[in-house]
Amino acid sequence: MIKMLTPHMPYDPAETVQSYATRLSMLHTGQPAGRLLADCGLKPSRFAAGHTEEIATFAAAVGEDPEALLAGTVRALSRHNVFRGEDFSRAGLASRVRQFCPHCLQEDGPPTAWRHRLAWCFGSIMICPKHSSTLVEVSHEGTENIEDAVDQAGGRELAEMSSLTVNIGRHVAWLHNRLNSAPSGTWLDDQSIEQVLNASEHLGMVLEHGQDIRPGKLTRLELSAALETGFRIYEQGPDAVKAGLDDIRKKALATAVQAGPLAMYGVLYDWIDRRSQLIAPGPIRKILREHILDHDAYMQGERLLGEVVTERRLHSVKSLALTLKVDRRRMSRLMQKLGLVPEGATDAESGRLVFPVKDVEQLVTDYEDAIPLAKVPEYIGGTQNQTLALYGAGILPAVIPADAPGAVRGVIFARRVLDDLLARIGALPLVNDEQREQSLSVSEACQRHGGTTAELISAVLSGKIAALRARPDPRLDAIRVLVPDVVGFRQKATGDGGSP
Questions:
Q1: Which of 242, 250, 357, 468 could make an S-S bridge to 431, C-beta 3.0–4.6 Å?
Q2: Spatial separation of the C-alpha atoms in residues 270 and 279, rounded to whole Å
Q3: Phi, psi of 287, rounded to the nearest 5 degrees
Q4: CA distances from 370 to 376, 402, 413, 420 (A)
């Protein structure tokens, strides 16, 4: 059983457990923490790495609650650190001294009483809220104790002169409340500290400096300002983040048709896509992924931010052209005719447009079971000339129309359009024996009384001419019209009151 140290020095919950060990050792041995730890039968390296057994043994020796000391311990694992059950990257959190507030140290008293605060361990937090000043940074690797860090900075007085007065920022206040176990009552409570800080920082960097910014080019103050900008949005929740992503896309300078998410979202996308494998990015990943899928055309089966796209939400002119096997420029012209692309849009302008699948799914469905022009006469029971006439008059609209006047190659028709025509023919009453002698086929009516196939069929479909069906199967060549009706129609069309 380990004998408890006296006199007792209480642990400050705001400091790291290593800092507490150093203060105790200076009090009892006049030497750094290693001496006291050795006297307690502990290995300094394991204690510095935050091993639970060492912390518990140390707590028993100094008369402190082991849970309180564990709450001030940064556990170093092989690839990352753990603090209060949350995972952190080495850059995000480290127990070694990388920055400090000289004003806080002055208030602590002599160097033997200096405390290394937990809040100083967070790499992206460079502000002391108590003194509204910047923390003084030492080497990136850090030092084992606070005295070495101050010496590295040239002494406390010199460090104090280099500390700048700044606004605290909401992200700094939030972190200190979090360290004091004060819930925010927002969705941030369900995320780790690093997830919140990383998401806020990357969101803010793109909003403040654009998609092409390189984080390494920014100063500490610029990074802190970007973090504050992003945090003020991020703390409001998913809807505010989506609005922020909308702003990012609007400000994007990338205009190429093939511009991908990296060009649109910059370092925010790069971080989530490539640099967040060790520490999960949190809900920002899903929000960004959904935002991309809501704005860019991804096909089913493609991978986006580590997940397979299960369904297509949007089509672009290019993806529709590939799906329908049509030249992209021709596809753009077709979309203009359909009113989906602004009239006169350039290839670049139309190439950046996207369309909800539901708005173009009929076009895709029509294409998948379409009938080429050459087979339409047989399908509807008409001649080639009649089919061309109906197509030219717009009575039979094509899924893919001709790409030049008079051209018919590649023209296809939706089966549903042809079936609709046949259904309307099938609804016509059958001709009786009395009517049969006075009835004419479409061809006969045009030959004897003038007019075109398109005019006559249009009149039949609009009800201007009463039509009959010569046989049960609904076919174009089964349509019959009565002579008096044709004569009356032609007289109205030509303005001739006499007999034709």
A1: 468
A2: 14
A3: -65, -45
A4: 10, 15, 5, 14
Assess whether 325 and 219 both reside in one domain: no
Q: What is the mean pLDDT of residues 355-383?
A: 88
Residue 69: Cβ within 10 Å count: 21
Residue 1 scores a pLDDT above 50? no
Residue carrying the six token digits 């790499």: 123
For 83-142, write each residue's pLDDT tens digit. 999 999 999 999 899 999 999 999 999 999 999 999 999 999 999 999 999 999 998 788
Q: How confident is the model at residue 404 (pLDDT cuts 50, 70, 90)?
A: low
* 290 and 343 inside one domain: no
Dist. CA 452–CA 478, nearest whole Å: 17
Number of domains in the chain: 5
Distance CA 19, CA 114 (A): 8
Examine the domain organization and report whether 324 and 428 are in the same domain: no
Its sign, for the CA torsion 228, 229, 232, 236, is negative
Last residue of a domain, one of 324, 343, 368: 368
Please check whether residues 70 and 114 belong to one and the same domain. no
Same domain (yes/no): 84, 129: no
Q: Give the domain-ending residue among 143, 168, 193.
A: 168
Contact 295, 289 (CB under 8 A): no
Query: In terms of DSSP bridges, do strands 314-316 and 136-137 run parallel, antiparallel, or are they unpaired?
Result: unpaired
Q: Is position 500 within any domain? A: yes
Phi and psi, residue 52, nearest 5°: -60, -40
Does some domain include residue 391? yes
> Does position 477 have pLDDT exceeding 60, yes or no?
yes
Based on the domain organization, do 189 and 303 belong to the same domain? yes
Q: Is residue 32 part of a domain?
A: yes
Across the range 183-198, mean pLDDT stands at: 96
Tell me what pLDDT residue 437 has: 85
- What's the CA gap between 104 and 108, in Å, rounded? 6
pLDDT at residue 491 in the model: 86
Which of 148-157, 162-171, 234-243, 482-491 has the weakest average pLDDT?
Answer: 482-491
Domain coverage including residue 256: 183-308
Q: Is the residue at 94 inside a domain?
A: no
Same domain? 297 vs 378: no
446 and 496 fall within a common domain:
yes
